[in-house]
Amino acid sequence: MFGDLFEEDYSSVSNYQYGKEKKLKTKTLEPPAPREFTNLSGIRNQGGTCYLNSLLQTLHFTPEFREALFSLGPEELGSFEDKDKPDAKVRIIPLQLQRLFAQLLVLDQDAASTADLTDSFGWTSNEEMRQHDVQELNRILFSALETSLVGTSGHDLINRLYHGTVVNQVVCKECKNVSEKQEDFLDLTVAVKNVSGLEDALWTMFVEEEVFDCDNLYHCGTCDRLVKATKSAKLRKLPPFLTVSLLRFNFDFVKRERYKETSCYTFPLRINLKPFCEQSDSDDLEYVYDLFSVIIHKGGCYGGHYHVYIKDVDHLGNWQLQEEESKPVVNLKDLQNEEEIDDDPLIILKAILLQEENNVIPVDQLGQKLLKKTGMSWNKKYRRQYGPLRKFLQLHSQIFLLSSDESTVSLLKNGSLQAESDFQRNDQHIFKTFTSESPGLNDKTSCPHWFDINDSKVQPIKEKDIERQFQGKESAYMLFYRKSQLQRPPEAQANPRYGVPCHLLSEMDAANIELQIKRAEWDSTNNNLELHLHLGPHYHFFSGALHPVVSQAESVWDLTFDKRKTLGDLRQSIFQLLEFWEGDMVLSVAKFVPAGLHVYQTLDGDDLTLWEMEIVDGEDLFVWNGVEVGGIQIPTGNDCEPLLINVLHLATGSEGDKCQQLIESPHVFPSNAQMGEVLTTLAVPMGVLFINATDPAEEENWVAIPREDLKKTFRELGLGNHNSLLIQDSRDDNSTLLTQGKWLTGMSEISWLQVQNLCELESEEKQVKISATMNTVVFDIRIKAIKELKLMKELAENSCLRPIGRNGKLLCPVPDSYTLKEAELKMGSSLGLCPGKAPTSSQLFLFFTVGSDVQPGTEMEIIVEETMSVGDCLKLMLEKSGLPGDTWHLRKMDWCYEAGEPLCEEDAALREVAIRSGDTLLLIEGKLPPPGFLRVPVWLYQPGGPMRHWKSPFRMNSTPSPGGVCRPASTHGAPGDPHGEVSLRFLGDLEISEDTTVAELKSQAMTLSPSSELVIPSPTFLRAWTMEGQRPSRLLRANQQQLKEYKLGRKTEICLEPLEKEENLGPHDVVLRTQMRLPGERAYTPCADLVWDTARGWTASSLRQRVAYFCSLPVEKIEIAKYFPEKFEWLPISSWNQQLTKRKKKKKQDNLQGAPYYLKDGDTIGIKNLLVEDDEDFSTVRDDLGKETQKQLALGKKSQEALRVPSSDLSSGAKTPGRPRAPEASLSIHVGSFR
């Protein structure tokens, strides 16, 4: 997404650099972290794909599913290399699943990515950010797989593993005739409400019989009359894997809202399904199933988070828990041996190294693994007795071998043999503890291995932890069982490579090698710290803090240093840099505070590494003698941190008397100073102190400090930097000082609603106020309003209350049964009493209008059943609008009042496409294209006015030819301004496949009739842009890239820009519009295109050099600026490389893609020739006019808002019940045809 913003630079960087030149510190993108101690890989969340991750992990830990998918080779599925070939049938979804499962098994990374898989689903970035239901995904994914595997040996994969049948029987009590109906299932959906657990639900479904008698008789075909009968259901065929979906979400018909059932619902770890099946002679073990996965939902019915509990059937992961239960009694001698081993670091370090590949490990990781094994770091457990870790390894050189840079350590061969013999001879139980990194060695078959997989995080859990998911907001949502008779082959145990195809193993092995190389490079690069050394002799102490004597630049030296080196090494390096230094050198951590530089803690321990001392990148270090600076002893530490306090007091006149003017002055006090020192400093011994206790949203409020609190410190009273204190002399009776502060005043609570008469019936009152509380029912308010307005009683049966929005629009009617709290109405809201009934619980109240240009108050209203199809609703709206024809479709208005995605499924019910009461639907002319196709409006585009590149028979301001609309786009620039004009000519609509390339799009656009007036030699003479707000937005730069790779939505419009010569842009090329400023005039020449290669970075220096070469001017004799047309402003682009200080923070800004420039394709760059003009102004006369127009518009808007204040305040709380929550969107996976 960011292109080469994070492109790695492998240039060499020395251990430390110094001087006045700015250092280049290589910054590489951090590679994925290796797997954690569980040895299992999670899946990264793309924003809202936790539901997808949970289901994919379940399928991955279903070995039979995984291996059946692996058994399909490239000869059946195709290969990724052929996916772009037109005639190749590449089954992309199974291929992506194969690759994902191989990554989860073999690739050494903590979390895999599903980006390629969701791309194969045809999902856009919006769908990846939107959460869906995992039960729905399970059915849709299985359907997509079945479609993808048609014609292969895996065509019955889903049917073979998950398909079962249920038989429904009706038995006539008269003739005993049995009527049967068989149903297939891939998952069983069971009730949760009023059911104690899974077995109880299955008993209700498959054991209990429904009796037809009395008024509910059954018509028997054999008897040919109504008879008594019984109805029952049984499981006829059980699949190897049983999926159970729990109906946690229900609808409350009283409150008319969805809710989540959080009551207790138990389910067994092992279940016998024989009581629920047809009678059979099969062995009982055929009906026994074991639980192996539980997908859990945390949250409510409108959102939440999914994670999954999974049983590791093949023991692929390292399952190890610190037992909190009471330990059994052990032999005292064994306990003493274990304590001796725990106290011997030599044995523990040997044990860790024995488990590593080739017995080699980085020293930093050795310390981390020691922490995991013993629960304590080396410094806390062994440092006092054995010294630093590296020194301990050096002292035992007969066993350990350190690398030349002391970054890695290995175990010598004789040390390895000696360690193994020690374990075999004396301490076999320690081997059980330290083989946790090798899964399968210490596994206990009696203890199932369960893991909690939460996106990227994988944690081992106990089997009893599953009971926590029986109830609550975080509870089980889907259950997965496997037949207990299914046995795994011994070679699959603890073997992640088992069953993985050779070509995928080779791909993963190569990827692992690449990851190791990247991690080594990243480790080398990112172990450098940039330190800022503040030299004591260049500072002096005043006003409670340290300040530079000359300038900040002269007082600070920057040093890049390896954090794996010790404090002693750092001190020695600084001694070598500062040849003038004499005497002791003390290094202290310092920090800038508003008062100046303050010294906190002195660094101690020359044999500690900077990493162990927790020195961070960009740390400020003060270099001094540890006692004084400039002859003044320096207070250090957090307790005496200087605080900058604003003190307010009355000014003193020339004759010593106090004026009525309040002045504010800053003062610095140590944090541990007493509050009374403020009075002493300002020579007001009998004064009274006030603290400003004002909240940001409240009015000003001053609180007096009691006399006894004057002995408390600033820190004890919670004062910080920039807090305000107010001083009043207690001998002064004048209260002017206090009256200048404002005190909080309470507001009386509003306890009424305003109801307006909108029934078109005359009444004495137009509106009335109805007293109410938040628990008042809407029906009562409506009846009271009818009485007080003295309207006809008949309105009680045929009227409703509708909230009035801020703009005066009537919102969706509020159901009579709601309370004000349920309807989300605030006190003081304004309601309208309107004719007509409110919709029932099964009906929808909808607004609709024709076209996408929605004007407030012009919408029409309709009440329809929520089961009505989209197509029928469209016909009804067309009929009510009086519009003929069938070339229309519906779109839902989104949250920003624009036309959203079209409602494509005309046969779907309104509720199935997430249409709710209060939604606005738009009638848009035009029939929707078939699936896999886009209808793209195409425009001819020319920046800077009429065509300057091509001679054409039409002009942009001329009368358009038939089929084309010629007009300048609405822009923010003033008319005639070169950087403000954009001319567009509509060419027509293209119905085009998503698999079409950009080059093919251009070729087809050239066949549209208005474009045929232009003589364009080939598509390479056209530049394609997407449009946003009638302006070019994103450049479609790669001619051979397919449209679907750009993830164009259904609302996308394309504009084509003719060029004078062929153009084939590279991935790093950026197209900019340059304009040279006319000397002596506030105007510019017409724009000229400049192509800038950003492969070496988006720096200001690189852009300046490219512009200077383009204009044939010296780089130091030009100034450039980016134009922001929406603000009518020019922002100069200075060369940061020439202006950089030694501070690191400013170096991070050297990227024009980021703030404040946000440079992109199509931006306008103004150029000024300093040889003929040296002022700093880039603006034009039209910019001044544009700013003035914006200012007038803003003032007019404020005045209109001021006139609307009374009504808007009253109606601000009015909300329609269905509006607050985001709409639910349907889920789909796009699959090609393989029949």
From TrEMBL:
Residue numbers spanned by region Disordered: 958-977, 1191-1235
Key word Hydrolase present: yes
Keywords for the protein's UniProt record, in alphabetical order: Hydrolase, Protease, Thiol protease, Ubl conjugation pathway
Keyword Protease included in the entry's annotation: yes
Gene Ontology BP, a term: protein deubiquitination
Class of enzymatic activity (EC top level): hydrolase
Domain USP residue range list: 41-484
GO molecular function, one term: cysteine-type deubiquitinase activity
Catalytic activity line of the entry: Thiol-dependent hydrolysis of ester, thioester, amide, peptide and isopeptide bonds formed by the C-terminal Gly of ubiquitin (a 76-residue protein attached to proteins as an intracellular targeting signal)
GO cellular component: cytosol; nucleus
Record-linked InterPro entries: Papain-like_cys_pep_sf, Peptidase_C19, Peptidase_C19_UCH, UBL_USP40, USP, USP_CS
UniProt similarity note: Belongs to the peptidase C19 family.
Identification of the protein by name: Ubiquitin carboxyl-terminal hydrolase 40
